[in-house]
Write a structure and sequence with these properties.
Strand content: 5-15%
Low-confidence stretches: 1-16
Structural class: alpha+beta
Largest sheet: 6 strands, antiparallel
Distance between the termini: 44 Å
Mean pLDDT: 90
Strand order of the largest sheet: 7-8-9-10-12-11
Number of strands: 12
Radius of gyration: 22 Å
């Protein structure tokens, strides 16, 4: 591949979104032509394969850089979760993949990228209208950037999940191809819709259940019902108990625990007080009716383990039947920033919140942000009818269908801030791009397995300390 085949990620676009340089709106025909012309600088087949360059940075140096800002006592837990399998290593190594993607082709048709669009970062949640939706659900790394990077992140996660489940090469490839083909076909659907229709589009859970194989529909219906019950009252029952007449969060170290440092709790109170200023007035009025009665540190995810994350138990009624759980999550620099430029927002919490609102069909009404000293945070409800698919138990047919739903969902998210007409025209009607991404996913899954093996060896030798099985 020659240098002429690649548009450097983050390079200024020749044309603004949907506009000519002079500010005049482009016609639909001009936007289609723009997409086709992008094939000349980033051929669809050029996305095929991946080979680590000789200058590739040590992935563990990348991860250690992240660990420096984290709770030191939780870093071994992060390693323990990442070493569980190549797939869990991949989940925690978004920064590693961002560095690797920086040298790959890009069409230059940027979108608001998720930055970490792997299979487990999709799931169920409630809209403010109490409808259960399926959507992206993690935006810690969001930033304007290449849509191709999100597609590759998703597709490679499908390949790794299939391998972890013991599928054949053919079954893994079929599932990976389905994720990309679904993205391409749904982008074509969105390209024919109006701007308002694209913005109103959503993936309702009742719409996707019939799309799944018969063998998966019963289990998926149970997942949906569990999600409906996975709310604040359920969290109250699971995460708290009453001590001397006062409801408190139950310690379960190191996953959930109260810390002895009183100043830390003062800082969290300050964060919650300041964050209210970023809410709409009606939501701020609602939140003012609650008071904080307990705060604890809570470990989340794989890649986020060790970051400063807290939960706050609030109540609007001393009788204990009007609770609210808020999650206070640290927002650090996006893993994409070193490669596509810094965020335009003054805090990373705002970057995350704005990105989430741009990408999701509907967002948590308590979503907001603030900063305290050198740390940035965003705040949201801890549980609001949330649910995630159990990828490890999926059959080949179910994984393929689920990957297709994720691809469709990612296309909907990208179409809101990108140009679906130009992207669809770039992709075309054939499977050239699909096959190229499937090829990339195989090679990148191989690399992830090698990186995972290095971590396994380092832990076994005692070079890296890990807490496994938590």
């Amino acid at each position: 591949m020659s240098s002429e085949d690649v548009v450097v990620a983050g390079a200024p676009l020749e044309l603004g979104p949907l506009m000519h340089t002079g500010g005049e709106l482009m016609t639909r025909a001009e936007r289609r032509q723009l997409g086709r012309e992008r094939r000349k600088v980033a051929q669809r087949s050029s996305h095929s394969g991946w080979v680590a360059p000789e200058t590739r940075r040590d992935p563990f140096a990348v991860l250690e850089d992240q660990n420096r800002r984290r709770f030191p006592d939780l870093v071994p837990l992060r390693w323990g979760r990442m070493v569980a399998s190549p797939f869990t290593f991949y989940r925690g190594a978004a920064a590693v993949m961002a560095a690797d993607l920086a040298g790959t082709p890009s069409s230059g048709l940027d979108v608001q990228a998720c930055g970490d669009a792997h299979l487990q970062n999709f799931g169920l949640f409630a809209s403010p209208e109490r409808n259960l939706l399926f959507d992206l659900n993690d935006f810690d790394e969001t930033l304007p950037g290449p849509w191709e990077w999100d597609v590759k992140r998703l597709a490679a996660s499908v390949e790794l999940a299939a391998r972890d489940n013991g599928f054949s090469r053919e079954q893994a490839e079929a599932a990976t191809l389905e994720s990309v083909a679904s993205y391409r076909s749904w982008m074509a659907v969105l390209a024919d819709q109006t701007q308002l229709d694209v913005w109103y589009a959503k993936v309702d859970v009742d719409e996707i259940l019939p799309m799944l194989p018969t063998e998966a529909q019963k289990g998926s219906a149970k997942l949906v019902e569990r999600a409906r019950r996975h709310n604040t009252l359920q969290a109250l029952d699971k995460l708290t108990h009453v001590v001397d007449g006062r409801r408190v969060i139950v310690d379960n170290p190191p996953l959930v625990e109260h810390l002895p440092d009183v100043t830390t709790y003062h800082a969290v109170h300050t964060v919650l007080d300041r964050y209210k200023e970023t809410l709409q007035e009606d939501k701020r009025l609602l939140l003012e009716r609650f008071e904080i009665i307990d705060i604890a540190r809570k470990v989340v995810g794989v890649g986020s383990v060790g970051t400063h994350c807290w939960i706050a138990l609030c109540t609007a009624d001393r009788e204990d039947d009007d609770p609210l759980f808020l999650q206070i999550k640290e927002a650090n620099r996006s893993v994409l920033e070193p490669w596509i430029g810094a965020s335009k927002y003054s805090t990373h919490g705002e970057r995350v919140v704005v990105g989430q609102r741009l990408l999701q069909a509907a967002s948590d009404m308590f979503l907001g942000w603030t900063k305290f000293r050198e740390r940035h945070y965003y705040i949201r409800q801890l549980r609001d009818m949330k649910g995630s698919a159990v990828v490890s138990s999926m059959t080949p047919a179910v994984l393929s269908s689920y990957a297709g739903v994720c691809g469709r969902t990612l296309a909907r998210a990208h179409a809101r801030t990108g140009d679906p007409i130009a992207i669809s025209a770039y992709l075309g009607e054939g499977d050239t791009f699909d096959k190229a991404i499937a090829s990339f996913s195989k090679d990148y899954a191989d690399q992830t397995e090698r990186d995972h093996a290095v971590l396994r060896a380092a832990i076994d030798s005692g070079k890296i300390q890990a807490i496994e099985g938590r």
